[in-house]
Amino acid sequence: MYLQKGDYLMTSSATSSDLRIANRGRVLHTVYSRREISKQGISQALSMSLPTVTQNLKEIEAMGLIERQGLYESTGGRKAHIYRFVSCARIALGVVLLKDFYRVVAVDLYGNILKSKVVDAPFSRTAGYFKGLGAELERFADEICGKAERESLACENISDRKQILGVAIALQGLVSNDGSVVVYGQILDCTGLTLNEIQEHISLPCTLIHDTEASAIAEMWFQKDKKDAVLLSLNRNFGGALIVDGEVHRGQALSSSVIEHMGLYPGGRMCYCGKKGCIEAYCSADALQESAGEPLEKFFRSMRSGSQERVAIWRHYLRDLAMVINNIRMLFDCEYIIGGYLHQFMEEQDFALLTQYVQEECSFPSTDIHLMRSSFTDDSAAPGAGIFLVKQFLGSF
Questions:
Q1: Where are the alpha helices (DSSP H) in 63-156?
Q2: Which residues have a Cβ under 8 Å from the Cβ of 133 and sit 6 or more positions away?
Q3: 359-377 b/e (C-beta count within 10 Å ≥ 16 → b)
Q4: 101-107/113-120 β-pairing
Q5: pLDDT for 68-100, tens place per residue?
Q6: Helix or strand run (H / E) with residue 61
Q7: Strand, coil or helix: 244
Q8: pTM over 0.70
């Protein structure tokens, strides 16, 4: 990711201020990536003089982003100070808005979830709903900055709301690239919703983000070794995101991939978008539940107990999902991350069967198919929204 800063090349157009800022960023990211390191270690890692390292460490320490914490064991000379990155020097709030409830999380600068809360509140595009959301966020922020909460979270560095980077709000809708308006929000009936409608009820700075994009950001944050992948989020509503070189791909008009509205069965089931035969109508968790005619928890219990009728429904679902994966592979052969609500019910035998079905769909001798589980067993959109702000903050250095 962007955390691996390359060497800064001084050119005739670069000023001493440019060089100073670049060096400070390199030092910061080195401490961040190592978590703790000595001044001498930074100097060696960056081929940077000790006086330059010292000056930059002073500036970063004044920002509260690093701290000295003890000394290393002596190797013969003076003991070196341990410089540690302060993970809670800043925190970000992530929210995911869903039909019946919303979830709020706080993440630190390593993306770790510090606090999480679910609030039952049916979504409505009304001032009353956003006022309630704003009040909940204010309480949430106050709790995090309160002494008792900070001690319980082992996050003593947060004492001022100015240390909260802001709020990223993920929702089921396509969002403009500047995060200011929902350009398509059929599920929540919020097409045209503007950030201003929400921001006027929240004191912290806010931005909007597509929920599937937020989930993909979270996946890549914790799987930094992955470069090219497709996230298939098997939630109540299907979601998909294309990841290229470790970053979520953003198109010219759509804020992230909209795989769920690719055609699977022309003229098939009606989709909420108004078309027939979309992937959403066959591969979402709601679509499976409709086919099963019962809650999915009960469906999977009975299916695992040997109900042949339910086994047939599940295998039909997996074959549809295999067609989706195979169609994507014809254009973009990569790893496929399976996440979302249905992911929690899937066992290794299901992944093996899905792999088999994908191979059967392929019209030519197929190479290995790389299906992998999500890093999350729960919602990933809310933490991903928070991580989106963390990435922006770290990328500013």
A1: 127-145, 147-152
A2: 95, 97, 102, 121, 198, 201, 202
A3: eebeeeeeeebebeebebe
A4: antiparallel
A5: 988 887 766 678 889 999 999 999 999 999 999
A6: helix 50-62
A7: strand
A8: yes
